[in-house]
């Protein structure tokens, strides 16, 4: 799986401008995830950082959860990450098995699972002939990796990830 975007952190290794690959909304989520990872003292952006950004920024993502108490519960778990919940993740690399932990094409500053999710979002957008990946594309890619930190958070909040995935597959996110 190749990493096609510049979501890696500005070290010049990316091949394309992220604005050509991500909607404005998703680019904002990526920026928020980077800031959160830095603020929390994490070495890499992981899938939980991305999920947190999606839930905070995008009404369409919140609507995918029926906007109910699940969203509040999810945000509660994610906010607790740096003060308790998720501390066992601190200083470790998220490797869900989606891609090898160290690969030639790895994205600096991103966990392998987060990089795979971004690639999955781009693949989903391209499959519907969109020029840019949107927030719902990333949410679908996140729930598609059952071993990711994002899915662990979703499970702890009693979210049925299979139901979310089916809902997202039935919808065509109209973001390009």
TrEMBL record:
Q: InterPro entries of this UniProt entry? A: Clp_N_dom_sf
Listed name of the protein: Peptidase
Origin organism is Streptomyces lydicus
């Amino acid at each position: 799986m190749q990493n096609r975007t510049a979501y890696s952190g500005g070290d010049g290794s990316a091949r394309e401008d992220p604005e050509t690959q991500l909607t404005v909304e998703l680019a904002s989520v990526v920026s928020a995830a980077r800031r959160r990872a830095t603020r929390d003292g994490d070495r890499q952006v992981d899938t939980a950082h991305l999920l947190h950004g999606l839930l905070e920024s995008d009404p369409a993502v919140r609507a995918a959860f029926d906007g109910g108490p699940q969203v509040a519960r999810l945000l509660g778990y994610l906010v607790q990450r740096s003060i308790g919940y998720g501390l066992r993740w601190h200083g470790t690399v998220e490797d869900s098995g989606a891609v090898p932990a160290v690969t030639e094409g790895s994205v600096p500053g991103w966990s392998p699972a987060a990089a795979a999710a971004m690639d999955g979002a781009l693949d989903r957008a391209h499959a519907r002939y969109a020029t840019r990946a949107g927030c719902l594309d990333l949410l679908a890619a996140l729930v598609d990796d059952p071993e990711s930190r994002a899915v662990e958070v979703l499970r702890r909040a009693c979210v049925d990830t299979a139901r979310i995935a089916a809902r997202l597959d039935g919808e065509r996110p109209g973001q390009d």
